[in-house]
């Protein structure tokens, strides 16, 4: 259901309230008679100090103040009143026998809206008050519009907070265990929601798929497209996963090679997704029995392997982003993971993060961080990497979405005696 936004109640016909400030009781009575005849409810104060006390407990639409008064004159009262004034505006008229330009400038400087020379003409007083009423009416309209905008903003902010929770819920858990081998996920949006997504799914009894997606742009549109593409790797219904391809030769379903998967997503982006947005992706097919790694890099930053002995290897050649060129070709890259090695897929929010000197973290910065944090494992590592990046930036929040997927190959998995994956009753070749 849509949010119901309550508009503020504005009563232009409500009786206006005026404060008359003058050390002469006779003058106060004269002004009160005029103002009451013009529809005002009036209050009186014999000095600036008494007027300030009244203003501290009640709002006045109009303040009519003499300049020359004992204890606190009208100028000092106006200055003190403007300093304590709340959100609602009061129209302030100073009454003075001074007519030099310096006095007028001084009064305007402390916050007076208008001046009337003494003795005051009732006709001129009425005209000046009418001008002030027009200003107050506009102020009420602006305040009402701002209040309505604030209500709309609050409703939008609640929607975005809910969208953030929903996006985070797409990562059901941050760490996955595959017979002692672990995958740890990091997702930190620069705003409420972002276009980065990371995740995993089971291909077969001994193979997993890991993906990292970065949609161009930020905000809700990028988040929706990122979630839609991540849904193509759904682990819920195996036959709905975009990785599954029916072999044209045998007619049997099989897990497509990474470059085939990238090509299928590219075709979907251009043919079925009504968007001009593009995205980058890394999709990795990992054999848990052998450590064999096959992946496609489509415009995403270079995946990095940290060997058990600490060596750092960046792999891949870049590749084209998804959604730019029809019939784009992609390449499957192969690498071998040994026990103790780990693979990190990450978004450019890490390498392109800048510090206060506009220097990028870069691949060298990531390499240094990997070495520094080599003793940490799993979620502890990806969280420490995030804090390392924040420390580098010198900021409290990231300017771009930050995401990553860390796979740690601890040992070769023994193939279990489990049934193969099925597609509509047919075993999937793996």
From TrEMBL:
Residues 17-133 form the Response regulatory domain. The keyword rRNA-binding does not apply. GO terms for molecular function: phosphatase activity. InterPro entries: Bact_Sigma-Reg (IPR052016), CheY-like_superfamily (IPR011006), PPM-type-like_dom_sf (IPR036457), PPM-type_phosphatase-like_dom (IPR001932), Sig_transdc_resp-reg_receiver (IPR001789). The modification 4-aspartylphosphate is found at residue 66. The keyword Ribonucleoprotein does not apply. It comes from Roseinatronobacter thiooxidans. This is Sigma-B regulation protein RsbU (Phosphoserine phosphatase). GO terms for biological process: phosphorelay signal transduction system. Keywords: Coiled coil, Hydrolase, Phosphoprotein. Residues 135-166 form a coiled coil. SUPFAM superfamilies: CheY-like, PP2C-like.
């Amino acid at each position: 259901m849509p949010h119901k936004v309550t508009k503020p109640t504005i009563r232009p016909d409500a009786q206006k309230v005026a404060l008359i400030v003058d050390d002469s009781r006779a003058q106060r009575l004269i002004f009160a008679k005029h103002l009451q005849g013009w529809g005002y409810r009036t209050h009186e104060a014999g000095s600036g100090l008494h007027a300030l006390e009244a203003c501290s407990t009640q709002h006045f639409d109009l303040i009519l103040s003499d300049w020359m008064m004992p204890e606190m004159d009208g100028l000092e009262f106006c200055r003190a009143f403007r300093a304590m004034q709340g959100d609602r505006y009061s129209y302030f008229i100073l009454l003075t026998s001074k007519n030099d330009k310096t006095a007028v400038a001084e009064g305007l400087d402390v916050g007076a809206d208008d001046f009337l020379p003494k003795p005051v003409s009732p006709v001129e007083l009425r005209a000046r008050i009418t001008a002030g009423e027009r200003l107050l009416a506009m102020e009420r309209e602006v305040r009402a519009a701002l209040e309505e905008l604030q209500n709309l903003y609050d409703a939008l902010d609640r929607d975005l907070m809910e969208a953030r929770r929903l996006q985070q819920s797409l990562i059901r858990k941050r760490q996955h265990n595959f017979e002692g081998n672990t995958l740890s996920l990091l997702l930190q949006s620069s705003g409420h929601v972002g276009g980065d997504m990371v995740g995993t799914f089971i291909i077969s009894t001994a193979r997993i798929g890991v993906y990292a997606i970065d949609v161009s742009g930020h905000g809700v549109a990028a988040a929706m497209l990122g979630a839609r593409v991540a849904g193509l790797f759904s682990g819920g219904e195996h036959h709905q996963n975009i990785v599954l391809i029916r072999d044209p030769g045998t007619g049997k379903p099989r897990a497509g090679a990474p470059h085939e998967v990238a090509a299928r997503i590219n075709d979907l982006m251009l043919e079925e997704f009504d968007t001009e947005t593009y995205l980058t992706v890394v999709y990795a097919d990992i054999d848990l029995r052998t450590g064999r790694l096959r992946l496609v890099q489509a415009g995403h930053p270079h995946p990095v392997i940290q060997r058990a002995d600490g060596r750092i290897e960046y792999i891949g050649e870049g590749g084209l982003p998804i959604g730019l060129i029809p019939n784009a070709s992609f390449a499957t890259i192969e690498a071998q993971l040994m026990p103790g090695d780990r693979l990190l897929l990450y978004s450019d929010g890490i390498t392109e993060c800048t510090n206060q000197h506009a220097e990028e973290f870069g691949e060298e910065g990531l390499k240094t961080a990997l070495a520094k944090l080599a003793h940490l494992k799993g979620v502890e590592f990806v969280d420490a990497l995030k804090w390392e990046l924040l420390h580098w930036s010198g900021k409290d929040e990231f300017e771009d979405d930050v995401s990553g997927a860390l796979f740690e190959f601890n040992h070769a998995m023994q193939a279990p005696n489990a049934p193969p994956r099925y597609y509509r009753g047919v075993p999937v070749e793996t």
